[in-house]
């Protein structure tokens, strides 16, 4: 089993991401625009027109993927700190991903600790686990299982996301979170995990990855527990 504890220190890269991201969105948009111009030409055949249209669609989808993976950073609520009830919020994320899981014959099983809150930005928390669980779904092109567990200690809440997917080599694990690192060709952006690392760091959490090729992957997230007493002093 390949193991690595990632201490979320890949952050300098993240800080320069804004410019890179807009570049990443501008490229496909410029390409799409070019083909829209070509389609204005009255003389082109219906066949060519259809071909151009499908290129435009692909380019727009590519821009959309970048935005989806990076959504968090365009939210005005950035830095907004609140109590995040882990079970409730994870259920919301799972609901969003249910249709895509069903479509890919992926079954999601959960086992949540009833209680437990952490502190952070709810939008970012959603984005983080959306990206992680989406990767799990995408790692099982022929279907499989995702197990989502939470439990807690006196001081920490642990969230485990386990899949029965393609797994990762040691090299792949090392490169996780590197901007643009993707093994999905034109279907990937390589931005999802970078965003995950950034968010987990902001919430003072850690990430552990265990993976085995063709067996699956376990992501273990550990976050400090939300401290009610210190927050509610004024009541
Ligand atoms: P993308 O999903 O666009 O490729 P990510 O940053 O989300 O980019 O993920 C980077 C890479 O990490 C993926 O291309 C894949 O190779 C690997 N990866 C992430 N999660 C998993 C997983 N659960 N199982 C197997 N590989 C994974
Ligand atoms: Mg991804």
Brief account:
This protein is α+β, with helices and mostly antiparallel strands and 235 residues long. It has 8 helices and 8 strands; from the N terminus they run E-H-H-H-E-H-E-E-H-E-E-H-H-E-E-H.
Write a structural description:
The chain has helices at residues 11-15, 17-40, 46-70, 86-103, 122-138, 170-175, 192-202, 228-231; strands at 2-6, 82-85, 106-111, 117-120, 144-152, 156-163, 206-212, 216-224. Mean pLDDT is 85; it is low at 73-78. The chain is 47% helix and 22% strand. It has a six-stranded mixed beta sheet. A two-stranded antiparallel sheet has the order 2-4. It has 235 residues and is α+β, with helices and mostly antiparallel strands. It contains eight helices and eight strands; from the N terminus they run βαααβαββαββααββα. It binds adenosine-5'-diphosphate and magnesium ion (MG). Magnesium ion is lined by residues 131, 134-135, 192.
Can you lay out the helices and strands and say which pair or pack?
Blueprint: E1 2-6, H1 11-15, H2 17-40, H3 46-70, E2 82-85, H4 86-103, E3 106-111, E4 117-120, H5 122-138, E5 144-152, E6 156-163, H6 170-175, H7 192-202, E7 206-212, E8 216-224, H8 228-231
Parallel strand pairs: 3-5
Antiparallel strand pairs: 1-7, 2-4, 5-6, 6-8, 7-8
Bound molecules: adenosine-5'-diphosphate and magnesium ion.
Largest sheet: 6 strands, mixed
Order of helices and strands: EHHHEHEEHEEHHEEH
Q: Average the pLDDT over all residues and give the rounded result.
A: 85
The level of helicity is 40-55%
Number of strand elements: 8
Structural class: alpha+beta
Rg estimate, integer Å:
20 Å
Distance between the termini: 49 Å
Strand content: 15-25%
**Unreliable segments (pLDDT under 50, ≥5 consecutive)?**
73-78
Strands ordered across the widest β-sheet: 1-7-8-6-5-3
Ligands present: adenosine-5'-diphosphate, magnesium ion
Shape: elongated
Number of helices: 8
């Amino acid at each position: 089993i390949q193991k690595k504890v990632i201490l979320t220190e890949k952050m300098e890269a993240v800080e320069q991401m804004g410019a890179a991201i807009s570049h990443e969105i501008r490229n496909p948009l410029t390409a799409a625009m070019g083909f829209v111009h070509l389609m204005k030409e009255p003389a082109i055949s219906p066949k060519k027109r259809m071909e151009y249209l499908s290129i435009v669609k692909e380019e727009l989808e590519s821009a959309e993927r970048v935005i989806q993976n990076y959504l968090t950073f365009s939210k005005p609520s950035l830095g907004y700190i609140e109590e995040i009830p882990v079970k409730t919020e994870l259920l919301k994320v799972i609901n969003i991903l249910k249709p895509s899981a069903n479509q890919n014959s992926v079954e999601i099983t959960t086992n949540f600790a009833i209680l437990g809150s952490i502190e952070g930005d709810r939008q970012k928390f959603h984005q983080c686990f959306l990206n992680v669980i989406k990767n799990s779904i995408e790692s099982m092109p022929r279907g499989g299982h995702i197990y989502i567990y939470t439990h807690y200690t006196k001081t920490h809440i642990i969230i485990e996301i386990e899949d029965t997917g393609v797994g990762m080599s040691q090299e792949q694990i090392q490169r996780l979170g590197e901007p643009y690192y993707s093994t999905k060709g034109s279907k990937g952006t390589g931005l999802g995990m970078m965003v995950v690392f950034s968010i987990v760091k902001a919430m003072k959490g850690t990430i552990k990855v265990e993976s085995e090729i063709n067996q699956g992957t376990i992501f273990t997230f550990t976050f400090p527990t939300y401290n009610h007493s210190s927050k509610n002093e004024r009541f």
